[in-house]
Amino acid sequence: MKKMKKLAALMMTGVLIAASLCACGKKDSDGKTSKEKKTAKVININLTDEEYAFGIDKDQPELLEKTNEFIKKIMDDGTFDKICNNYFGDGEPVAVKSASLDTSKDQLVVATNAAFEPFEYLKGDSYFGVDMEIAKALADYLGQELVIQNMDFDAVCLSVGQHKCDIAMAGLTVKPEREAYVTFTNSYYYASQKLIVLNSNTEFDNCTDAASVEAILNTKDSKTKVGFQNGTTGQFYCEGDESWGFAGFKMSSTGYKNGSLAVQDLLNGNIDFVIIDAAPAEFITKSINAVQ
Length: 292
Fold this sequence. Notes:
Elements lengths: L1 H23 L1 E2 L5 E2 L5 E4 L6 E3 L2 E3 L3 H16 L2 H10 L18 E6 L2 E2 L3 E4 L2 E3 L1 H13 L2 E6 L2 H9 L5 E2 L13 E3 L4 E3 L1 E6 L11 H8 L7 E5 L3 H7 L12 E5 L2 H9 L5 E5 H13 L2
Parallel strand pairs: 6-10, 6-11, 15-16, 15-17
Antiparallel strand pairs: 1-2, 3-14, 4-13, 5-11, 5-12, 7-8, 8-9, 14-17
Helix pairs in contact: 8-9
């Protein structure tokens, strides 16, 4: 009987020690205590309804006509679906190379912001993404050499408006303000904004539509911080935009050069929410969570 009591006491001691270790955190390879890694999740509710299109130099009506003709062709013959499958299905992304700018050659000069996965991003000196594969196919269709100019998102439409580039291909939402710089093609993709939060956040778990998400966001004041990519619909949605009918929120807002930086800042505890386009939101959270 004494042996049983002694054994029970030892077992209880072991449980208490284990609980104590768990409470203190996990040990890393050097024997040091480390905190549980944070991860993010996308709230699967569309907050907006948008159309993507390409922005053409206003002084090139023939390029606009040819590009619209090309968009119809790739939609009809399955090329667009095949390209999308490379990023949303089981296909393999195709590397796209940019030629050097040479005004003596017949070139298609594309303005983009290669930090908007899966529409445009860089790996080494190669471009990847839905828009970049379309850009290569468009250049081939036109019989031109492809040149890709990578720049901040805010400069994409401006560079076309200043005739420095022929076409803007950067996951562009059709928006009246941008029509001051470019002429939009026919739409080729329908998108939306989505909310990213920490996996530990449960306050949106019972939301069923945009209105229920916004009802919660509207309770937040300036102590709550929301991040987005500069110059995108996410910024207009958070800060308010009359032309789109966005009332905006009272939260403090922070703009980033790309969505990845915003999500990383969320994980670092510097902001509370991120609002960016749906497809990049999924890709970014999946990629960042994988390395946490």
